[in-house]
Amino acid sequence: MLRRRQFLQSQVEHNQLTSETPIQPLGDIDYKDAREVLLEEEVLGDGDNVIEALPSSEEKDKKRKRRKRKLSQGEEVKKWEDSDDEQVVEFETAKPNWAEKFEDEKSDDSDEEILKAHSHRNLEASVTLPSSALEFKRVTDGNKEDPSKASLRSVEFHPSATVLLTGGPDQTVRLFAVDGNKNRKIHSMFIEKNPVFCTHFSRGGSEIIIGSKRKSFLVFDMEGNSGVTYRPKIKGLEVKGMSKFVVSPDGRFIAFLGKFGYIHLFSQTSKELIDSVKMNEEVSSVCFSSNGKYMYSFGSEGRVYVWDMDTRDCVHHFSDEGCINGVTVAASPDNNYLVCGSKSGIVTIYDRETAMSTRHPKPLKHIKNLTTKCTGALFNPQSELLALRSKDTEKAIRLVHFPSLTVLPNFPEQFDNDIHTLLSMDFSPSSGYLALGNNKGRCLLYRLQHYTKY
After folding, report:
1. What distance in Å separates the CA atoms of residue 440 and residue 119, rounded to the nearest whole number?
2. Partner of 70 for a Cys bridge, out of 75, 318, 359, 365, CB 3.0 to 4.6 A?
3. 388 Cα distance to chain centroid
4. What Rg value do the Cα atoms of the chain yield, rounded?
5. b/e map of 165-179 (b: 16 or more CB within 10 Å)?
6. Which of 158, 147, 145 has its CA nearest to residue 119?
7. Which residues pair with 6 in a beta bridge?
8. Taking the model in full, what pTM does it have?
9. What is the predicted pLDDT for the residue at 31?
């Protein structure tokens, strides 16, 4: 058999055998192609070594162990790949320092879930968002695994990790790992006798500031071992309760809204009171510029005050055209627009440079789609969408397209009856998701398909 194999191989190499050359095999088998005979003997053996050619049980065990090792390490084993398979966007991943802390906890409130995280410092170059319609899809509620037992007063996305923060009057703060599918709960905190009215991430997402009806606030350190700490109330501080505040994006200030036009500025690092500034009317809303250099405050008499946060001086103020009672103010991340929402529901959009140069600027446009008080205005990170909401009627949310300044007609959907009354909202760091918190304790999550990143 070996001599026959060597003979066939030599004949093929010297081109003396062709596909038409007949070879007499063993037994009564018909004539076959010489190359076919060689291929069969290569795969199946030549008759004398068939048993030796079969894979041994030891080799099978080694392969099985290697496969188990790959699966245990989380490597995906695909059986096949089709040309029409969906291309999943890959994010840059990095594990937050506080993720391991939550994973090690063995309480009923925690999940052994590895958090996905990625950098959002550089926004993806966006193709111009069309003004005709918004492509979106309703996905699993952000807090489906553990909805709030009361209304959802606060929802916010972590600035760098795929984590959603929720809080409400049920005295519980919850964290969820957002993937649009399961949105697993990773941690929760019950704070006795402290209904939660406002929560914000601070110091780059390493801490959570919690505000309630009390004259003190709470801090949850996610990276340290101190847990939740109370900041005692300060004597003489003009506040009814520390339930309304905003955090500056540069990591310097926590601005609490007080009585008689006072805005109290605390340090994000030390949590101590740094300064208090006062406007000549009741303060209704506060926001910061994207670099934290300026703070804008809006009052009950319809005037916007501009504060230099380096000197804490009021450098300018202007009147919102036609406004009797100001409710909310927002600044676009690209620093091109200022938005003022009034008690009548009319929202006014200004060019920032124009508003900073005169006391009575002319607005770019009045948005009149809300029929009740505008209680929230928020830009997405790309400054292409402005979300407006009202808590005084159901399904009162509108999205305004920039720079066309037109209201997108297809959001919300006509038959989306789960919206109810909206009390909070937020865009994810790259606008991939929009979260809406309602009075039923649910966090409705929408995938904005124009944006490919989270």
Report:
1. 33
2. 75
3. 19
4. 32
5. bbbbbbbbbbbbbbe
6. 158
7. none
8. 0.75
9. 44
- One-letter amino acid for residue 284 of the chain: S
CA atoms within 13 A on the CB side of 389: 21
CA atoms within a 13 Å half-sphere pointing along the CA-CB vector of 243: 14
Mean pLDDT over residues 396-406, rounded? 96
Distance of CA 97 to the CA centre of its chain: 18
Cα separation, 402 vs 379, in Å, equals 10
Contact assessment for residue 146 and residue 188, using Cβ atoms and an 8 Å cutoff: yes
Structure tokens that stand for 405 in this block = 């300044």
Q: Which two tokens stand for residue 306?
A: 């501009």
Percent of the chain with pLDDT over 70: 72
State mean pLDDT over 379-385.
Answer: 96
Q: Give counts: helices (H), strands (E), the chain.
A: 6, 28
Considering Cα of 271, then 274, then 279, then 281, what sign does the dihedral take?
positive
Say what the pLDDT of residue 26 is.
44
- pLDDT at residue 116 tops 70: no
User: What's residue 223's pLDDT?
Assistant: 82
91 to 81, 142, 384: CA distances (angstroms): 21, 20, 22
From the list 282, 321, 280, 278, the residue with the least C-alpha distance to 300 is 282
Polymer length of the chain:
454
pLDDT category, 293, cuts 50, 70, 90? Answer: very high
Between 129 and 87, the higher pLDDT residue: 129
C-alpha 413/C-alpha 399 separation (Å) is: 12
In this prediction, residues 354-361 reach a mean pLDDT of 95
Question: Which H/E stretch holds residue 286?
Answer: strand 283-288
Residue 161 DSSP code: B
For residue 174, the surrounding DSSP H or E stretch is strand 172-177
- Give the pLDDT of residue 237: 79
The answer to whether the CB of 347 falls within 8 A of the CB of 370 is yes
- Please tell me the distance from the alpha carbon of residue 280 to that of residue 283, in angstroms, as a whole number: 9
Mean of pLDDT over the chain: 81
Tens of pLDDT, residue by residue over 18-57, are 545 554 444 444 445 566 666 666 555 555 554 555 555 5
Task: Give the mean model confidence (pLDDT) for residues 128-148.
Answer: 92
> Do the beta carbons of residue 96 and residue 161 sit within 8 Å?
yes
C-alpha pair distances (Å), 52 with each of 25, 37, 41, 55, 60? 22, 19, 13, 8, 15
